[in-house]
Design a protein that fits this description.
There is one protein chain. Helices cover about 20% and strands about 35% of the residues. The chain is an alpha+beta fold. It has a single domain, classed as Alpha-Beta Complex (Nucleoside Triphosphate Pyrophosphohydrolase). The longest helix is centred in the last third of the chain and has 16 residues.
Amino acid sequence: MGDIVHVTIKDEVLGPIPYEVAHDVPGRLHRATAIFIYRNATKKEVLLKRRSDRMDRGAGQWEPGAAGHSRTIGLTPELPLETGSRETLEELFQGAETLPDTLDLNCVGKLHHSSRASNNEWVYVFEAVYDPDRDVPFALNEEGKEWRWWKWGELVKAMDEDYRQEGKERVLIFTQTFHNVMRQYVPFRKNKKSAIHAPDWHGNV
C-alpha cells in the first residue's frame, strides 16, 4: 500500500505518510472510511464483508461492506467521497470501471476511533442503498472472503455478544475497528443524536 493521509486531531491534512509508519506505535492519526450498504431504503438489512484469511489484520473477521484508508496521489490527498467510492468499487465490484449508477454514497458524518496503540483514525461514515434488482452483482477482490446481508437487529445482537468476549481467548467475529465504529454509529442511526459529527455540504466537519 502507498502513502495515506496524515491528519491532526482537528482533521487538518498534514501530508502523506507511509501505511507502515501510520500503523507503528504510537499510531499516527490518519483518515479512513466505512461504507454501510443497505439492501433497500428501509435499512433493515446491511451488507457485511468477511475479510480474507490472508489479511495481516482482522483475518477472517466481518466488517462493513467496504472500508479503507484515504490515499495521497503525490502530495494531493483523496477527498473522503473519493476514498469511499474507490474502496467500494475495488472491494465489491472487482473488474468494473465505475460504481453502479444507482449506488449513491452519502456521507452521514465522521468519528474518531483508536482500536489499539497502532491504529488512530478519523473515519468518514457513508451510507448507500443497493438495489439487487437493478445493480450489478457483487464481485469481491482478494481482500474479501465472502459477503452476506445481515438483518440489523441480528447484527447488533451478534456484535453485543461478540463484544462481551473481548479479552478472552475466543477470537472476535467482527473486527475491533468495526466494533468501535458501531458503538458510535448505532445511536446515530437510531435517533441522529450521538458522538458522530455531521459534515457540512462540502464534507468538512
